[in-house]
Sequence to fold (336 residues):
Amino acid sequence: MTDHATLSRRRAIQTLFCSSAALALNLRALAQTQVSASGLHFFCIGDFGTGGADQKKVSAAMQGFIAKHNLKPDALLCLGDNFYSKDKSPAGFTIESPRWKNEIEDMYPAASFPGPIYGVLGNHDYHDNAGGQDVQLAYSKKSSTRWKMPAKWFRLDLGGEKPLVTVLCLDSNLPAVSGGVDKKTRKPRASLTAAEEQEQLAWLENELKKSRAPFTLVVAHHPLYSNGDHGDTKALISQWEGLFQQHKVHAYLCGHDHDLQHLELEGRYTSHILSGGGGAKTREMEVSHKAPFGRQTHGFTHLHISGDAMRFTHYDADGAQLHTFAKKQDGKVVIG
Fold:
C-alpha cells in the first residue's frame, strides 16, 4: 500500500516536472525565428486535400504568417495526397470539378500565394479517383491556373538568372510502393508502371550528374525514412538513397505520414523533412529513428533559402513555431 508521504513526494515530482516542461515550452515560444524578406520563400504542405476544417485552418495559418511577415511567397509546394476521397460531382473528378476551385484556387488564394503551386503525386491521387493522376497533369495545362505539374517528374531551377536551388520533383508511387492489389476491392491499384519507374530513375541519375544550383532539394510524396505510422519506405531507400549521398542532395522533402518531422541519419549527407499535416487526420508517431524533431500535429513548413543556407521551419495549425534548422551549402546542419 502506498503511504501519504510517498504520494506527496510523487505529486511534488510531477509538479516540478510539469513546471519545468511549461517553462521550457515558454522559452521555446520566445525564441521565434526571425524571418527575412530576402531570398526565396516556399510554403510546404502534404496530405491536405480533404476540403475540411483542418485544411482550412492550416491554410489560414499560412496566410496569417505571410501577412504578419509581409512576404510574397515564391511558390507553394504540395507534397502529394492533393485530393482525398472519390469526387462526388456528376462528372466525377475532371479538370472542371468544383474541387479545383474550392480546394486549391480559393483554399490558397492568389492574394497570399501569387506564385505557382507545384504539385507531386501521392498514393491517394492515384487510388481515390480512377485516372486522378492524369487529371492533375491535365489541369496544369489550363492558362488560368497557378497549379503546375508539367509531368510526373520534373526539374525546377529557382532564384533568377543564378538560381539558388535546383528542385527535383519525383513520383514516389513505384509499383512496390503504391501498386499491388487493393485489400478491400481485390482490384489492382494504380501506380507508376515498371517502364515509368525505370525512366524516372534514369532521368534522376542524369539530372544529378548535371550542373546544379548551390542547393539541391528533392521533393516527392513518400518518405525514405520516417518515425510516423507508415515507417520507412524500403523500395525508395534501395533506389534513391545511394544517389542522394553520391551527389550530395541537401534535403529530401515529403509527406505521407500525417505529422511533421525532421530526421538526420548518422553518416548521411541528406536531411529528411516530412510535412504531412496539411489537413488530413493526423496519426500517432511510431518512433524507430533518433531524430531532432517529430510531432503528431496539423501544420505547415516554411522553407527560406538564402545564399548560405536552406532553413526549414515547422509551424502548427495555430501558426506557432515548433522546430527550425538550417542546412548549409557544405551539408552542415544547425538546429535552432
Q: What stands out?
A: The longest strand covers residues 309-316. DSSP finds eight helices and 15 strands in the chain.
